[in-house]
Amino acid sequence: MIFKVFAKEELRSFFDTLASSNKVVGPVGIGKDRHGDTLFAFEDVDRFGDLRLDYTTTRLPAKRFFLPFRESMASFSLEKGDWKKDISYNIDRPHIFFGLHPCDINALNKLDKVLLGSAYPMPYYAVKRKNMFIIGIDCTPQPYCFCRSMGSDTALHGFDMFLTDLGDRYFVEILSDSAYNLLKNIRTSDPVEGDHVHYMKVVSEKTRKFVTRVDTTDLTKILDMEFQSDVWKQWGDRCLGCGTCANVCPTCYCYNVDESVDISLQRATKDKMLYSCTVIDFAQVAGGHNFRPERHSRLKYRYYHKHRGFVEAYEESLCVGCGRCGESCLAGITVPEVIASVRGEEV
Amino acid sequence: MDSGRQQSRTYLGVPLFRPRVGFFELSSCEGCQLQLLNNEATLLDFLSLVEVVNFREAMKERSEDYEIAFVEGSVTREDEIERLRKIRENAGILVAFGSCACFGGVNQLKNRFSLDWVKNEVYGNSPIKTDFVRPLEAVVKVDLKIFGCPVKKEEVEKIITHIALGQEVVHHKYPVCMECKANENVCLFDIGEPCLGPVTRGGCDSWCPTNRAGCWGCRGPAEDANLEQMEKIMKENGFSPDTILDRIECFGGFSVYAEKLRKDLGDSR
Ligand code: SF4
Ligand code: SF4
Ligand code: SF4
Ligand code: SF4
Ligand code: SF4
Q: Which of A17, A192, B79, B92 is a good FRET partner for A289, with 20 to 30 A between their CA atoms?
């Protein structure tokens, strides 16, 4: 692993170098909420000044750029008695992600396991994922963040370079040759012992700021034991079945496919839309049978996929602890509270 | 509009069923029918899929010979009951077209008041026949509902295409929030506005929230809508019971729940 440091002013020219010939996506402010706090989102960014590298958590994750909410998988057209099929992976150039927090980088690594690592990789995701340059950046834990409990508070791979704010300079961890070569465009230097000390201080300060914890000890077993627990019913009574939790989750990848013929009868499209296991017809199969008609059973399975099934398959959970689902859930259903209740802890 | 006696279309070499359709309106604003005429780009395609034999909004000729009747509006008068029964007799398939036809729509708001008071308030002394507002299904059997105030033309076109191709028409069962998130909107609750999106049937592509206005539930309840929780959320977000009631009862889709809520409120007011 290669480490460098560079003065903060250099970041602007680094951005300009990248933005001159690439599409850059980064955190920006998109308005204020009713408490006067800034709402953040990942958007295309042209000017360095628009970036908000001090952002907390975006409401929606960056997945809209590699797992769009809606995406055309194929289109068909009838021409002169014959038909033609067009497939587009819906990306025309690489994306540069300028400032992803560790949770969101870890989310990509988890998505890779399913969407790239399975027997049938998903080309729509793969093409976008393979054409990314990721600049990670450290963050300040918010009251709802529990990434540390999920082992996602640091990213070990899945990025090109990672920035840590040392006050007047950035400490940068370099993982790819493209990052190494691109950094030649700005003035960097090798870190000295003082930088290492500073870095470690920043990291331990960050660690102390976590206020929310999730106890994952033996969680797969406990979930097994508590399958019939009453707490599921209680959470189910609150759940709206609105699907928001999966939509805002950086690791949820489920989707529905819809085939439709255009009213001209000359064209048809096959579209995918991200779906959620909490939605009423998620487990409805051909013939009409619904395996999970009740809200509590759907909500429960969301937790079983993330904290039990996925752990058994990949030895890690499908939750990075970003807290987005809880922040967006109008019914106030949060992962730390649900898990604590299943464990029989006071909530 | 010229219904045109075109040859039936084929799809992948198979001749299609080109139904004769009629459009009718009871008590309504005719906005739903207008939605259809609005889309000039696809109007011709629409007309090649169906043979329109009755459409007062767009043509002079009338015929009682149709297979599918799209009925807009709610039932508010005695003579409308007769007309509706007649349409039902003529049509193989009767479609409740828009929220007035499906649930009574905005019109049903008057059911809360005494008929005499309403008549007097709206029409003064002029003699007018008006009764309680009912959805079509209170009078005749309805085969298909197309929700929305107004209906969404893209959805209607999709349904027509499905009918022409002999495919099952399936409504979205999920609530508006699904589409709202797909449209990457900021949730209105985040900015302090009320919204019925979590309990309202999707399919409008989150029309109102995308335009920064909270949902009023015009498409009626989503399947498995959790209204008790919706009520709590509205309260927690500082909206008065009247704000909730106004929205819940606006289009008639949540009538059972609205009635309960109104009673609860009446008791506590
Ligand atoms: S847990 Fe919350 S966000 Fe998820 S479906 Fe239920 S109410 Fe919606
Ligand atoms: S389940 Fe919730 S906390 Fe976990 S990754 Fe998804 S949105 Fe973040
Ligand atoms: S099953 Fe549910 S929790 Fe799991 S990825 Fe799909 S939507 Fe997310
Ligand atoms: S604005 Fe309304 S529809 Fe959109 S997410 Fe919020 S509650 Fe749901
Ligand atoms: S958002 Fe609500 S009120 Fe607006 S069109 Fe959709 S269902 Fe109707």
A: B92
